[in-house]
Design a protein that fits this description.
Blueprint lengths: L1 H19 L19 E6 L1 E2 L4 E2 L3 E5 L3 E8 L9 E3 L4 H10 L18 E3 L9 E8 L5 E6 L10 E7 L1
Parallel strand pairs: 1-5, 4-10
Antiparallel strand pairs: 2-3, 5-8, 6-7, 6-9, 9-10
Length: 166
C-alpha cells in the first residue's frame, strides 16, 4: 500500500504545483546540427521544477542520426523519465502508463509500459540532481515523434515533440 501511495502523492503534489506556477510551454530548441555519417547528435533535455514540463517542448534531429540525449533533473523534487514514441501514440502509451499504478512492479519497470510504440526508453527514474544518458538512433522516416514522461499522471503535461527531418 505504501508503494502505491507515493506515486499518488507525487501526482497530487505535481498537480498542485503545476497550477501555482507559470505553465507556458517551453520555447522550441534550435535544431541540432545535422550529423555526418558516424557523428552523434548530442541533446540536453531538462525539467522545469514544480511544473511537470520538459524544459524544451521541441527537439530536432536528422533522420537516422545517432542521438545521445542527456536528460537532467536538476531541481525538481519529483521523479521523471523520458520515452520516445511512434507518431500518434502519446495518448495510448500514456493510458498504459496510468494503468501501471496498480502494478506492484511498476517502479522496477521505471513506469515504462510494454508497448511496441516505445522507440527509446530510460535506464532509470531521474530524481533531483540526477541524470540519464539515453542513446538511440533517430527514426529514418521524417515526422513528429512525441516524447513523454510516464511517471504516473505526468505524461498529460510533461510531453514534447522530436522533429525528425531529412
Amino acid at each position: 500500500m505504501k508503494k502505491l501511495l507515493l506515486p499518488i502523492l507525487a501526482l497530487a503534489a505535481g498537480a498542485l504545483f503545476s497550477v501555482a506556477q507559470d505553465t507556458k510551454p517551453a520555447a522550441a530548441a534550435p535544431a541540432a546540427p545535422a550529423a555526418a555519417d558516424g557523428e552523434v547528435t548530442k541533446i540536453m533535455l531538462g525539467v522545469i521544477p514544480n511544473v511537470m514540463k520538459f524544459d524544451k517542448a521541441e527537439l530536432t534531429v536528422k533522420a537516422g542520426a545517432k542521438v545521445m540525449l542527456l536528460f537532467k533533473n536538476e531541481k525538481c523534487a519529483l521523479q521523471h523519465n523520458f520515452l520516445l514514441l511512434k507518431p500518434g501514440s502519446k495518448d495510448a502509451v500514456g493510458a498504459l502508463a496510468d494503468k501501471m499504478l496498480t502494478d506492484p512492479q511498476a517502479m522496477a519497470k521505471l513506469y515504462v509500459p510494454e508497448s511496441a510504440d516505445v522507440l527509446a526508453k530510460p535506464h532509470k527514474l531521474v530524481g533531483i540532481g540526477q541524470s540519464d544518458l539515453i542513446e538511440f538512433t533517430a527514426p529514418t522516416e521524417p515526422g513528429d515523434y512525441p516524447y513523454i514522461c510516464t511517471f504516473p499522471g505526468h505524461w498529460r503535461l510533461m510531453n514534447g515533440v522530436l522533429k525528425v527531418t531529412k
